[in-house]
Amino acid sequence: MAYKITNKCIECNLCLDVCPTGAIKTISGQRWIDPNLCTNCVGSVFTVPQCQAGCPTCDGCVKVSTDYWESWFTTYNKLIAKL
What we know:
A hairpin with a 2-residue loop joins strand 2 (24-27) and strand 3. It is built from three helices and four strands, in the order βαββαβα. It is of the alpha+beta class.
């Protein structure tokens, strides 16, 4: 399931530094997580998503996306890309 950066972001850029896949992007000062690059840190040496672990807002700005269809299409596109 992909994560989202909410409007509680304090623009500290720590998430950019700790993301092992480079999934966090900045466009016009707005940070967002590319769902095609985000692996939720699954299959890596980490046990928790590093964007959440590194966020100084105490889990305030990095949230799990709860949009069912967004999550479904993200998973679908990842699987299709592997074919």
